[in-house]
Design goal:
The chain is about 5% helix and about 40% strand. The protein is mainly β.
């Protein structure tokens, strides 16, 4: 198969409207597994009484907020600003998925793309008017602008997740053939669609690497493809190299974590490891792990993953959400897992928090009161009551809409720590590993995930000189929700009078609706709702991905940057909001343009020969600087620094920050190695958290600061 421009494929005489039999069979087989992807195959999202969400006869007021203000909206209708191409009457035809912001650029995945807006996979937006705003007043004048669309190879494949590299130069995209699956299950055979809407064979599901250094002209570089693609992913630099951790469920591929090494020079993604709770396979060994569970039970689904440098040890830790329908402390499959990924080819499990339907997970990137913390959330297809053993089938009775749990992971570096099990809906949180929990409703009737909790992010900021921690959540038809984490000795956090939203569509039920909240004990920890927004713009009904849901609003996720909360709505577009009570300050983001050059004595060395490396950093604001050095290269002299080994690299962190134009020198000696061994020196990394003594520092690699060095054998005496 030949490749056309922009990463598209020329299929020659192949009929793109046909789905081969094996694909059709796969789609029908995996329908029952859609629940674990947060999707429904039965049509529009169900209403508690009428099933008419967002359609005629079921109306919502457009402005519907508590403690929040909507300050921006873009429909993703086309390239251009909010006022030029972002109005609701010029929509994107299809659905939206994950949204991420890195600096001044946002990426929003497109779960479907149909006529007249075909061939779209990801929208890239300039959001600098928001992320560089220095006051809340500036937000009222700000607009976001669509710069470009990363193309999709065919309309059968859906973009499920987007994640930036640490330096924002690359975007990693996961795909699954969800659009084709919905078309088949809804009875809309591809051959029955118009030419603009035809669904080709979903042959490109997997992980993509995209160069977004010029967001107006992105370039697809490399890919790894899988039978049912990858659901979510995360990028992290480990030992001076780029790794992309992809996760998926048991639909067509073994469920688990797929570790890819990304080569910035070639743009290629290379599978180097597969990990699951019961198996690990190195490069070239990925086979058929024993964890491949039955589709009906969904016992094991690697659904979400986040990787950070641990605030306690400094080592790379991954936080993995494993969907599962069993609620039993003895169940080794479902729940939230903490993994040591310092060596991506040899992953070590450190601890497990057992729970049902673990769907979304985010760690807090610093310790709080000496504790290592993370938040993990459920996703509920309907309010099936917790049973404790997962033996009962979904009943569609009244029940909870999905919990978010605050979990204490202190001590996991000691290996194989039992972090306990999540309390059930009617139980209070204890003073153990589960510190707090929150649920929106405990007595609601719904189906097709309509009111389920969904994806989250963490905002760590200061309000009036006090450190505050917030959880931003896309909560499907319940809109965008903002929770605050209360902790002993921290700011006063209360949930009183914060659940006043009437939700007329829920009040039609015969039984009263029970509010959720946090049934915590007296341990001093709290998850409390502090604001919410259901403000939305109505796009034309035929523009929606109706086979998923026509509900409006229908929020997928929410992320924060510079005091602004951005949220993607599956049915309508991208929203920008601010939190008013407490007022997250705008203008706290430090914007600096740092660059560096790396010079050394040559490219070929013998063991024991000294290589002087000079780093010159240019920056407008103070930044800390470190250099990645091969572990087998000894640091023998140089400017004052500290050293730490991670995987195959040695991190050389200089004591003094760079400010303006600053030079650093370090002298290295390569040790004995087989002749011809190639080592990569660099990259140079910086962080702006110079004065944040108790904060987790986020290091960013600077481009063009890597150098290949060859070690040759010692010359033998004549």
């Amino acid at each position: 198969m030949s490749h056309g421009p922009n990463g598209r494929h020329d299929r020659g005489g192949e009929d793109p409207s046909r789905l081969d039999l094996s694909r059709r069979t796969l789609f029908k087989t995996v329908a029952s597994g859609l629940a674990v992807a947060g999707l429904s195959a039965s049509g529009v999202g169900g209403h508690p009484t009428s099933g008419d969400h967002g359609n005629e006869g079921h109306e919502h007021v457009l402005e519907d907020d508590f403690g929040m203000t909507n300050v921006g909206y873009h429909s993703l209708g086309g390239v251009g600003s909010e006022s030029l191409s972002g109005s609701p009457d010029e929509p994107h035809y299809g659905g939206l998925s994950e949204l991420r912001v890195k600096g001044d650029i946002a990426a929003c995945g497109l779960i479907s793309s149909k006529s007249p807006t075909v061939d779209r996979g990801v929208a890239l937006l300039d959001v600098s008017a928001y992320t560089r705003a220095e006051s809340r007043e500036e937000l009222e004048r700000a607009e976001m602008t669509v710069l470009s669309f990363i193309p999709n190879e065919d309309n059968a494949t859906s973009v499920m997740d987007v994640k930036f590299s640490d330096d924002g130069q690359y975007l990693f995209v996961t795909q699954q053939p969800v659009a084709a699956l919905f078309a088949v299950l809804a009875g809309n055979a591809p051959e029955a669609r118009s030419e603009g809407d035809s669904f080709e064979n979903p042959e490109h599901a997997g992980v993509l690497a995209v160069d977004v250094s010029n967001p107006g002209d992105p370039e697809i570089l490399g890919r790894q493809e899988y039978a049912f693609g990858m659901h979510n992913c995360y990028h992290h630099r480990i030992g001076g190299e780029d790794y992309v951790f992809g996760v998926t469920g048991p639909l067509g591929d073994p469920a688990g974590v797929y570790v890819h090494r990304f080569d910035r020079t070639s743009g290629e993604l290379e599978l180097v490891n597969f990990w699951a709770h019961d198996a690990e396979y190195r490069q070239g060994e990925v086979g058929d792990p024993t964890n491949k569970a039955g589709l009906a039970s969904n016992e094991y689904y690697a659904h979400d993953i986040t990787v950070i440098d641990d605030p306690v040890t400094g080592d790379p830790y991954a936080y993995l959400a494993n969907w599962g329908t069993e609620h039993d402390s003895g169940n080794s499959k479902s729940g939230a897992r903490v993994l040591d990924v310092s060596d991506p080819a040899d992953i070590e499990e450190l601890g497990v928090f057992t729970m049902e339907r673990a769907h979304t997970i985010e760690p807090i990137r610093r310790t709080v009161n000496g504790k290592r913390l993370f938040v993990v959330g459920q996703e509920n297809p309907n309010p099936d009551a917790d049973t404790g053993d997962g033996s009962e089938k979904y009943t569609n009775e009244r029940g909870h809409t999905g919990h978010y749990y605050l979990v204490d992971a202190t001590g996991v570096e000691k290996d194989d720590v039992d972090l306990g099990a999540a309390s059930l809906d009617t139980e209070e949180s204890t003073a153990g590993d589960e510190l707090a929990k929150w649920v929106w409703r405990t007595n609601a009737a719904f189906d097709d995930f309509t009111y389920s909790a969904h994806n989250i992010d963490i905002i760590d900021t200061e309000v009036d000189g006090t450190r505050r921690l917030f959880v931003t959540a896309g909560h499907y038809h319940a809109g965008t929700r903002v929770l605050e984490i209360g902790y002993p000795g921290g700011p006063a956090v209360s949930e009183e009078d914060r659940q006043g939203d009437p939700y007329d569509d829920l009040s039609e039920d015969e039984e009263p609706i029970s509010e959720g909240g946090n049934p915590s004990g007296s341990n001093g920890w709290l998850l409390a709702e502090t604001g919410w927004s259901r403000t939305h713009f109505n796009t034309p009904p035929d523009s929606k991905f109706g086979s998923l849901s026509a509900a409006t609003p229908y929020r997928w996720g929410a992320v924060g940057e510079n005091g602004v909360i951005f949220s993607s709505d599956i049915s309508t577009g991208v929203y920008a909001m601010r939190l008013d009570d407490p007022a997250i300050p705008v203008g706290t983001r430090t914007v600096h343009e740092a660059s560096a050059t790396l010079e050394d004595d040559g490219s070929t060395f013998t063991a024991g020969q000294t290589n002087q490396v000079t780093i010159t950093v240019e920056t407008e604001a103070p930044v800390e600087v470190r250099l990645n050095v091969p572990r087998l290269w000894e640091v023998v002299a140089g400017d004052p620094h500290e050293e730490r080994e991670v995987a195959d690299n040695r991190l050389v962190e200089f004591d003094e920050p760079a400010d303006g134009s600053t030079k650093f020198d370090v002298f290295l000696e390569p040790q004995e190695a087989p002749t011809g061994t190639v080592y990569t020196l660099g990259p140079v990394e910086v962080t702006s958290d110079v004065d944040a003594a108790n904060d987790q520092q986020i290091w960013e690699a600077l481009p063009d600061t890597e150098d290949a060095n060859v070690v040759v054998g010692r010359r033998q005496p004549s």
